[in-house]
Amino acid sequence: MLTEVTPFLMQGLVKFSSMDSLRLYLKDLMIQYEKEADRYGEKVGYLMRILEKEMRGKDIRKLREIEWRRVGMIVVNDRDPNRGTLELMIEAMEDCKAKATRTAEALTSVNELEESGVPETASILVYLRHGVPLRIVIDNQKNPEVDVLVYTTYTAPPRENAPIRPLSHTS
Predict the structure, then answer these.
(1) Nearest alpha-carbon partner for 51 in 4, 95, 25, 83
(2) Is residue 7 part of a domain?
(3) Does a structural domain hold residue 36?
(4) Coil, helix or strand for 138?
(5) Is residue 5 part of a domain?
(6) Is the pLDDT reported for residue 60 higher than 80?
(7) How many domains is the chain built from?
(8) Is 13 strand, coil or helix?
(9) What is the reported pTM?
């Protein structure tokens, strides 16, 4: 298994107690995506060296055509697990890098929003997709009707290099 600890990826409507807690969540998430991309990168390099030795003198194009087959809606490689694993790891590494970039962009946007004067006491309702904010509602009035509608509330972890903790669920 590649990942030791990954943050609990929040999706949907999540309430943050402050802009600071949202910023901390995004920083932790970005760090986790970057670490995971690095771990995949190390494994990709290792597998590429193995495959390079195995593929000497073989026509790679012919092998590629027969490696993957479709089973219903899933694509399966049961002929060359090393190449299949390498392709999946490259795809996962690129996905982690893209998520880290999107998270960094969201963090910049949150910092810009905070500079525009969000009150410290405001609660923040965020629509997250794959952990990254798409829309934010700033509630200066702490509207109890909104609290009833929110499914999760983010609780920031203690700041001792701890990973993101799971959420508390409200009903």
Answers:
(1) 83
(2) no
(3) yes
(4) strand
(5) no
(6) no
(7) 1
(8) strand
(9) 0.72
Question: Whole domain around residue 49: which residue ranges?
Answer: 12-169
How many angstroms separate the CA atoms of 124 and 139, rounded?
6
Instruction: From 21, 14, 36, select the one nearest 164 (Cα to Cα).
Output: 21
How many percent of the chain have pLDDT more than 90?
24
The answer to the question of residue 4 being in a domain is no
For residues 143 and 124, what is the distance between their CA atoms, to the nearest angstrom?
A: 11
- Structure token pair of residue 27: 């920083």
* Residue indicated by tokens 């929040």: 10
What angle, rounded to 10 degrees, do the helices at 60-67 and 81-115 form?
A: 80
pLDDT tens sequence across 111-167: 998 888 888 778 888 888 877 888 888 887 766 665 555 556 666 666 555 544 444
Strand (E) or helix (H) holding 43? helix 19-54
Q: Where are the alpha helices (DSSP H) in 55-153?
A: 60-67, 81-115, 144-149
Mean pLDDT of the region 85-101: 92
Q: What single-letter amino acid sits at 30?
A: M
